[in-house]
Design a protein that fits this description.
The protein is an all-alpha fold. It contains 13 helices and two strands. About 80% of the residues lie in helices and about 0% in strands. The protein has a two-stranded antiparallel ribbon with strand order 1-2. The longest helix is centred in the C-terminal third of the chain and has 38 residues.
Length: about 350
């Protein structure tokens, strides 16, 4: 509850700062925010779009949250997303199975791709003592160049005007129920599995202890190196899954710029959520609301959609920077209340 109040206060301050900026630019903040949230939530189609757009944000956010809360500094989500998408694309282009088999096959393939890419950083850490903070960042660039080469040459769709692959077999497309894309179900299942592992298993307990105090965990008999590799593989698989679901939910092909800023936004989500698993899900949907509504906001109010990018950055800065300050204020308030109760 305390973290919720702190984060809510930070978000409100960020929106207030955004309103001040809009006033200086002669825009109406009430109308702008109304258009922003209205375009995202005004009808069922808009909300289904929000949920679909939240899938890569939540999955890459979970990847970052699990890594940061467990000790490893995995910043390779952008590259792992791309490799996962590439694995799913290759599988979808060269293997044609019935949909009940094809969809799980591509999901597992995308997770394998992401896990392999994060596993490379893990191996470099274990065998050469290379900092995963550096290796995961560098592997992002390699993944970007590798996937660009793959869609420009061996997988390039003939007669296309820009780098892209042909569409995967239709049996690999995520089904839709009306406006609802079932990739959301996969995301929720992944969230449930991660939550269960993190909070209801021995391994999850060891990961959390290692993230808080690795020396204490080691003295308590936790196998730090073994758990390190497990965390890297799991977080890579989550990021790879996000890439595979992007392909399978649409556009059903790998196109240039596929990853956009999903993974970096997912890392921002984990920072705002303070690496909490449930918080990552909620903030992932919240950021998706902002991003989905930015287009409608621009159409209705003429406020540039880039304002949402600025707003996201301000939310992260305000929430993260003020978290300790707000926590201190709340502790003081609660302490004074308890003192009054005891003296009364």
């Amino acid at each position: 509850m305390r973290n919720f109040i702190i984060n809510l206060a930070g978000i409100l301050i960020a929106f207030l700062l955004g309103a001040i900026v809009m006033l200086f630019q002669h825009y109406n903040p009430v109308e702008t925010y109304g258009a922003l949230f209205g375009y995202s939530l005004e009808n069922m189609y808009s909300f289904m779009t929000v949920l679909k757009n939240a899938v890569p944000l939540v999955l890459t956010g979970l990847s970052a949250s699990v890594a940061f809360a467990s000790g490893p500094v995995n910043l390779g989500q952008p590259g792992q997303l791309l490799i996962g998408a590439l694995f799913a694309t290759i599988g979808g282009l060269y293997v044609d199975l019935p949909a009940p088999l094809m969809i799980p096959f591509l999901i597992l393939l995308s997770m394998l791709g992401g896990a392999i890419w994060s596993g490379l950083a893990g191996l470099m850490k274990q065998f050469f003592n290379m900092d995963e903070y550096i290796t995961t960042l560098m592997l992002n660039m390699i993944a970007d160049l590798l996937t660009f080469w793959a869609i420009s040459f061996p997988l390039f769709e003939k007669k296309a005007n820009h780098p892209q692959t042909p569409r995967i077999f239709r049996s690999g497309w995520m089904p839709k129920i009306g406006d609802f894309n079932t990739s959301v179900i996969v995301m929720l299942l992944a969230f449930a599995v991660v939550w269960f592992i993190f909070y209801r298993t021995v391994s999850g307990y060891e990961w959390r202890i290692s993230g808080k105090n690795s020396l204490f965990a080691r003295l308590g008999g936790v196998q730090i190196e073994k758990n390190y590799m497990r965390v890297m593989l799991l977080t890579g698989a989550l990021a790879g899954l996000s890439g595979g679901l992007i392909i399978m939910a649409g556009p059903h092909r790998f196109i240039k710029g596929l990853g956009a800023n999903y993974a970096w936004d997912g890392i921002m989500v984990s920072m705002v959520a303070n690496n909490a698993i449930v918080g990552t899900l909620l903030y992932g949907i919240f950021f998706s609301i902002l991003q989905t509504g930015s287009l409608g906001m621009e159409l209705v109010t003429q406020v540039p959609s880039e304002l949402v990018t600025v707003l996201q950055a301000v939310i992260v800065l305000v929430v993260v920077a003020s978290r300790g300050y707000f926590d201190m204020i709340l502790k003081q308030i609660l302490t004074r209340r308890k003192m009054k109760e005891r003296t009364s």
